[in-house]
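tl;dr need the bound structure. longer version: we got a ligand (calcium ion) that a collaborator sent over and nobodys looked at where it sits. i said id run it. heres the input, straight from their email, havent touched it
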Amino acid sequence: MKKALVLASTLAFTAGYTASASAETLQTRWADIQVETLSEGLNHPWGIAFLSNGRMLVTERAGHMRIVESDGNKGDPIEGLPEIKVMRQGGLMDVKLSPDYENDQIIYFSYSEPESEGSEITSTAVAKARLQDNTLHDLEVIFSQYPKEQGGRHYGGRMIFSADGEYLFLGLGDRGDRQDDAQTLDNHTGKLIRIYPDGSVPEDNPFVGEEGAQPEIWSYGHRNIQGMDIQPDTGLMWAVEHGPQGGDEVNLPEAGKNYGWPVVTHGEQYGGGEVGIGFDKEGMELPVWHWTPSIAVSGMAFYDGNQFPAWQGNILATGLRGQNLARLEMDGDRVIHEEDMDLGQRIREVRIGPDGNIYLLTDHENGKILRLSPAE
Amino acid sequence: MKKALVLASTLAFTAGYTASASAETLQTRWADIQVETLSEGLNHPWGIAFLSNGRMLVTERAGHMRIVESDGNKGDPIEGLPEIKVMRQGGLMDVKLSPDYENDQIIYFSYSEPESEGSEITSTAVAKARLQDNTLHDLEVIFSQYPKEQGGRHYGGRMIFSADGEYLFLGLGDRGDRQDDAQTLDNHTGKLIRIYPDGSVPEDNPFVGEEGAQPEIWSYGHRNIQGMDIQPDTGLMWAVEHGPQGGDEVNLPEAGKNYGWPVVTHGEQYGGGEVGIGFDKEGMELPVWHWTPSIAVSGMAFYDGNQFPAWQGNILATGLRGQNLARLEMDGDRVIHEEDMDLGQRIREVRIGPDGNIYLLTDHENGKILRLSPAE
Ligand SMILES: [Ca+2]
Ligand SMILES: [Ca+2]
Ligand SMILES: [Ca+2]
Ligand SMILES: [Ca+2]
């Protein structure tokens, strides 16, 4: 059931807060939630990572990365980024801190990498660099999706470190025009990738040593992975991906398994054919959950903070078209309930802050960081 | 998402159909569905079983059982029923045919049985009898819930035969005033029961031989079981039950397990306390799915006909307060999607007909049998 934003928007002025922040209250089953605009004026913000003292590292798809202070003030663009081809869905995407960031100051970010300077032939790449004095140092590209492709769609781009910090997972897409490639192992299209943080390939990846297979592949048959997180109790990596028209999916991607795209889907085929190839096939995995019609699922996070005790272990997922926050109650790998909350804005990503509050990025040219905390 | 009944109600006159039948179209994700009123004027119909030649055996909570012809015409009340105490939620409830009905003409039905003639101290009982010439013969009460209780609430009453026809399952309730009894094994309150069709107790029931335990108990900690069915592929028995305010549940009740009531629930405690005792506890089972807020879940059936191929294996569940048909897509014991269809009438039960169409009973004094078939 849709929960709408209630109470008229009120203006709240916080001491030391220069921008006027609007706060609204969202009524949900277990909590009344205050929705505050923490920062705005970000150009399609895509990824966010929490630094110390309430500061945040934020990417803008338009090709900028900035530190946003705890009061919402935005720093100057960080210098030293590689060439990024900003085109349609492509640009600067996700950002994660090294598991040992306090000591090494290393960050990882994903972006659309051109084949050569200015080229519109691109693919998703991941770079690492040391962040110091608002500048990236020792930049190194640790992964480039093969092959590069014309067009600016379905880059995937979301990343997450494994629970032990040993592996970096990267979700990719089918680039829009290369659907069938998602079913073959000789490319990275429509794949989920597992690498070491230096870009090298773990020897126990499922297709290492298989003739012609790309060794970075963890799982395949994905359409366009947009959100990823690690489940708190199990340490398992989960991912959400866009379906075609319907069939947005939550998956629990296991090593070597086939998640079906474009052979099976709960969405409609292009042109509106119903069912088409069907929902399921031997040797392919059903999703754990799907949204049909599509919410255009974007980010996902397991809630594991202390601000919303009733939501502990729940999946929070966001929608672009759905302009929503979906809450999935879990029992292990089963969804046992969904609550759908209407936010009235396209949402790109959701992360849980160190303070246990929920942070959302809105997908607009004047994009915002929203903070969700318990209302008094 | 709620699908509303669309298209203005149209009157359809079928040859040989004396009552005027209204047909509406329900638009759903995978099918446009014609909703026809097959029969009406039934006083709170509760259970339905399919006889040969399209005839149906239907119970009315008010204490009548009738054969309804394939054209919707209602026969006279069947004679020979035992004394039934019709009071609040109590009365004549479910009806099932013997697995060998073609040869033995035996039926099983559940009802509120008074302690003595005219008494308001009642509990749920199951009787068997041979149906011949519109009369019950050789009537035998094969189970009586212990203890009997004042008040007319939470009788449970739904029944299902196991896939092999060897066992009869009966879902019971906490009688409203005996919540705590659902956690102790010395009574049938808030229990799911497994017996042989002659009323005797299977030796491998989980609490047979346990001092003081009622041997008919299969599982416990249920609030008020209202729907039951057997999953086609697995042969497993599933059940739905009412929560308090919220927390209507789908369960997959396993032998000897505790389904939590009244210790854990996703509903609210009486008086409106939130969370209260919490959702889960060691040694108690979470539901496979819950509706919160409550739809006041009533019947449930696995779809296994050939009229709606995209729904194969799905759970269909109905709501009294929700006035809805909920469709749960399944992957084994996981719900992977819900579609909610608004029917605008309180629905008591859902069964799949031998023709693959879906039959619903509406819970009104002028209750109806609705038939759902694919629209042209
Ligand atoms: Ca899939
Ligand atoms: Ca499969
Ligand atoms: Ca329960
Ligand atoms: Ca438990």
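gonna send this back to them w/ a short note. The first helix of chain B runs from residue 101 to 104.
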